[in-house]
Amino acid sequence: MSKIKMTTPLVEMDGDEMTRVIWQMIKDILIYPYVDLKSEYYDLGLKHRDETDDKVTVEASNATLKYGVAVKCATITPNAQRVEEYSLKEMWKSPNGTIRAILDGTVFRAPIIVKGITPYIPTWTKPITIARHAYGDVYKNTEMQVPSNSKCELVCTDESGNETRRTIHDFGESGGIIQGIHNTDASIRSFAKSCFNYALDAKQDLWFATKDTISKQYDHRFKDIFAEIFEAEYKEKFKEAGITYFYTLIDDAVARVIRSEGGYIWACKNYDGDVMSDMVATAYGSLAMMTSVLVSPDGVYEYEAAHGTVQRHYYKHLKGEETSTNSCATLFAWTGALRKRGELDKNAELCDFADKLEKAVIDTIESGIMTGDLYLLSSLPQKKKVNTEDFLKAVAVTLDALM
């Protein structure tokens, strides 16, 4: 069989630890035999980020803006222990944070559903996609401890030097803590447009929720911007697509989500999205079965797995011990990127390959061949636990039959 040709490269960002090992296995076993892969490669492994003073992350992000599609391996965000382990020059920032800031993107996470793994919420028969606003709020906060008998204020100084003051709290003898958070209209607009565009692309209803009844300016600003953009730019498009936009309070949204069957996109502010994406991932069975894509408002896509670098398995791998690491989310990062590259380039053959590779992954698991984490969760009567590489080889056998 002749290999599928690509006309435009995608950006490939390599990563760290066990996911880096799996990254190469996926290419060797499931991509190179079928696709004449064109990629612009960037090594975002921690050692290389340190060697380049993290300039490689910026370069990879700018390349993604240029080509429109990227696929990223999981990477280490170093803490003090990692600084010592890798003898780093400094404690480098999260590469995901850098990429999100440059792409001005929103993170969309959705579960991979397979037979035999029943969600902890049994009504969830369709995937729920979490859209997380990846800017501001508590993640860009300023905070301090407050000594007793202090008065804390919000102070805004405009361009003319005029001050507006609001009292936060007059502290008594106990003292306390304060926190300042912010967001920008520009970032909220980008978030809204990314969500509306993704919903149209996926042909799924979009839900959005904040706590605007309590946060009458901060959260209400999110609600108003979403409503303004929807009415002006997306109302007719949603009607033509047969989908809806729905706003409610966050506590009402949680209750509705628990009672639902899934099959929609749930847009959340930064902290809500952080928490709810992990809740949804766990409820569907496994973080290793969770896809993740960063989407910019102007249509740039960066695909990755929702999980980390699987450090514990990597240390076993270094000792020569067998591992049974779930590669599904990383595989679906590759299929997502290849499909989007095919869509943008009108390369139907590449899109078809991505579809068949995803089907091969699901069919392999549903046939009973799976990694250890899924083996513990699966209710299939006939199931077999296999190691990391053997699972990918089993997917290749299934894929060959589909091709």
What does this structure look like?
This protein has 403 residues and is an alpha/beta fold. The chain is 45% helix and 21% strand. It contains 14 helices and 18 strands. Strands 4-2-5-16-15-6-7-14-12-13 form a ten-stranded mixed β-sheet, with helices on both faces. The protein has a two-stranded parallel sheet with strand order 1-3. It has a two-stranded antiparallel sheet with strand order 8-11. Strand 12 (205-210), helix 7 (218-241) and strand 13 form a beta-alpha-beta unit. Helix 1 (17-31) packs across helix 10 (311-318). The longest helix has 24 residues, at 218-241. The chain starts with a strand and ends with a helix. The mean pLDDT is 94.
Which terms would index this structure?
403 residues, alpha/beta, ten-stranded mixed β-sheet, two-stranded parallel ribbon, 18 strands, 45% helix, globular
